[in-house]
Fold each of these.
Amino acid sequence: MSCTCGKNNCNSNEETNSRREFLALGLMATLAAAGCNSDENPFSPEEPVALTGEKVKLLSVNGEVIEVDRAFLKPVPDMPSLSNSEERKGMPNKQFVMVIDLARCKNLKKCQSACNHMHQVHPGQSWIKVLSMEDADHTAPYWQPTTCMHCDEPPCVKVCPVDATFKRQDGLVLIDSDRCIGCRFCMAACPYSTRVFNWGEPGLTAEVKDQHYSCETSMPQKKGTVGKCDFCPDMTRKGELPHCVSACPNGVFFFGDMNEDSVSNGAETFRFSELIKDKAGYRLMEDLGTKPRVYYLPPVNRNFPYENGLETQAESDKLNTSK
Amino acid sequence: MENSNVKAVEQITKDLLPQKFGKRGKIWTAVLVVICLVGAYAYFRQLKYGLEVTNMRDYVSWGIYISNFVFFVAISLVGSLITAVFRLSDVKWSTPLTRIAEIIAVSAIVFASIIIIVDMGRPERFYNLFLHGRIQSPIIWDVIVITTYFFISILLLYIPLLPDLKILIKNEKPGTWLSKLYRFQGSFWAGTKEQFRIGDKAINILCILIIPVAFSIHTVTSWLFATTYRPGWDSTNFGAYFISGAFLVGAGGVVTAMYIFRKYYHLEKYITEKHFDRMGKIVVLLALLYLYFNVNEYLVPAFKMKKSEEMHLEELFTGSFSGMFWFAILVGMIIPILILLFRKGRKPFPVFIAGVMIVIGAWFKRYLIVTPTLLHPFLPMQDVPVNFRHYFPSWEEWAIAMGSLAGALLIITFFVRIYPIVPIEETIIEQTESHEKADQ
């Protein structure tokens, strides 16, 4: 429900304010009104509304600009903008891709905290992990942020018995927490260990709790279902970058569209194909045939020495560096 | 001659009719009920607070529920072995064992289904499997074959029971709930030649059907693991490895049950030392077969020591799981083989001990198949709370797992209270036939 009606308290007028503003207002607010066709005052609420005297201009369904008191506006946080089938289908003519430049990472974990904050991931869990890697004895250690790889041959999607995790036409692998039965087969199948499970009640803020669930925001998380990095399609729809990309002060993450052949970290934009070619990009566990959508640029000519990242590494991780 | 036959029939019927629980039977049942109730309370807590009450976390996302599930599916395979394989290959001596095997199969498959629902994060969405089921997922295959196996097993239990139900109706005072139950289940059975013919035909068809289905349930269960990339699971050996292990644990379960029923119900005349001797030989064969697949499963990757397998195998051979690993190999396979290779070891009591060892070893073996692999992911376990890197089941998990085992035993216990565990009619037919042969 957005805004309807043009009666009684609503005064039609021909204000010249920009149409766009009205639409935006209309999207964010709804009128506590129904039954425009009845003779009753549609604004006679169950409880008397104290008028604020402040008028808000809205665009009615008839295309008329109307003015109502702010008291009649009610915030609608759970307004689903997309249907489930649209969310499962994905955006047309897009092929999302991510490039992670390991030469720039110093384990600041800003990506992680931004992601956890925005998705209200359960404390202790995270969708992005920054791993301390060392490929072989005596080779140089480096920091490797890992997101969901959004594989083109996703093992998780293959094994899901109910189509709760799915591959979209724009390349994203998403989860429908309204359908997930919590069997955790996808977690066993994912070689990147990227999936997390809501073992208990997820710690959500009151404002998010009652929101309508969306596969694109992955919010609100639900008890007994699987969660993971979703490449923030809600941000992409708004023309913005995923939270990890914009949160990283070192520009480690590049996000973009393979169809446009461009990736950006906010400050810099590159041709995806050239960047991968020039910097010898690679993907994780190529031999498994999962065909990830996340490309890594090797940690050469680094911006920071590996040791800089040790400050932010958890004590318990220090002995656990992978070789 | 006629007279002695009638007497023999009366004696057999008297020996094999189900008996009321004695004092020990009542205590046994009460203990099982208590364990089940504790398990039910633990499950209530799990429903209330979520899987958080378990010690499973993001890395070890499958724990003893799943290993218990694999154990149940494994032990249920014995129904097809004793009933179907023996029947089709015309092994006559297995008659007194068929019903034991079949009730173990049914109770195990029931609790396999229950425990897999217990493992689900959203059990109330179970219907999604039918609403949105995708045939490419091994879980759907499992749902299909386990359901099929359950119904075939129930029929293989029920149809051979029909002639016995007639005997039970005759011997039970009319009006009691037992009598009503028997009548409800079998009053249509008159015992005509035509009915026996149809019954035999049905059993034959079911016996042929159940073999591929039994192979499927455990192969598909192994594929829940083998279709992933993880070290320890990523194995082409898994289907055969699981099936050989399943036959072994099932046979171990049957010899254990044989001994207990024989002792408790004084069935020495029907379950004889010969049965233990022969089952003992079969168990040796199955244990050797399972050992062979274990060699394939562990030594071939250990020869290469690929990086991804290395940590996993070292943990099993010499690391923190080594105690349990060698226990499962020694107690679950090698010691029973050593016991049963000798004629003296195939007397009832040593066979029983070997059977118990096999079952316990098999339970831990399933734990070893599930958990250690999950603790060795490809990417290092970092950036997570410390307790994500270990796994030891919480009390709720233990209570539910033990409750499910007790529940399976409870089904068997009640079954034995209500129905004859050794088929009466078939025993009578066989004994009279052998008498007639002796007379000729």
Amino acid sequence: MKEAIISNPLFGISITLISYAFGVYLNRRTRKAIFNPLLIAEIIIILTILIFRIPFSAYNKGGAFINMFLGPVTALLAYSIYRERKLVISHIIPILAGTVAGSVASIAAILLLSRLFTLDAILTSSLLPKSVTTPIAVAISETLGGIRSITVTALLFTGVAGNILAPFMIRIFRVRSRIAQGVAIGTASHVVGTSKALELGEDIGAISSIALSFSGIITALIAMFFLS
Amino acid sequence: MGNIIRTMRIILQLSLLFILTLAGEAISHMLPFDFPGTLIAMFLLLLLLGTGIVKEEHLAESASFFSRYMALFFIPAGVEVIENFEALRSAWIAVVIISLISLFVTFLAAAKAVEIAERIARRREA
């Protein structure tokens, strides 16, 4: 019977949908960054398939179907940039300065630290795009020969840490400008951090979501010209 | 009747996004260098919006759905990590430390670059 259930793609699809719905519910009830819906869904699914000894390939029959939507989701980032075009145009120089500096700093820090910890090339490539938004990070990681699931794991960790630590970093680095706060949050901790930026103020959230698209594009360009 | 039109709109929006994604992949394949096809699809959509061929409201329904529940579509890529437990077993502490330090470094660099750019702009105005 187990065979009949897990060999159907609907198994992977339904377990993903249900775990995610539960994650969204828990997040809304607690309003805590640590109860990130994506993180909760991952943990539930991983535990389920480990406990019931379900091979990943069986889960992924449905998983691959959901994964297919990553492309359209990335394309839609254009929609949010376009919708905020007035904000983008009026602050284009600071936004560009911040996202370029942040992306370069992120890549340099990861390259340096990976060498320090003697990580192999595959692991280093998997970590490199971990500050940018998931769909772009996955694409860059695959282009560089990294393992996308490690990229997603490091990226989730970074996002949740960024979400929780953003107010602390604003304080210790004495970041007064609201534009700088938004750009820094979006560049360093993508969408998960941006949800905290939205709590700090709608203007900071809008800038943060622009910054995360920009830093994704810039990181992809750097990866293309200097790393591959 | 209204519902049928709405459903049709969503189907058309999804088709547009799928076709753009396919076009992005095709262009990426033809390029002499490695650049993600999904990002090319994004630029194509930006171009369509900028030229007014596609209007903002043409994508309203799917944009609000996908941006609200974006994380759902990343779940399978993350679950795949169970295939790589071996690679992470000896390296996970390094991965955590690198992620944390680079978070601080990135945040600091981005914030200060914006503040410097703003200061220069203000001085020029003065």
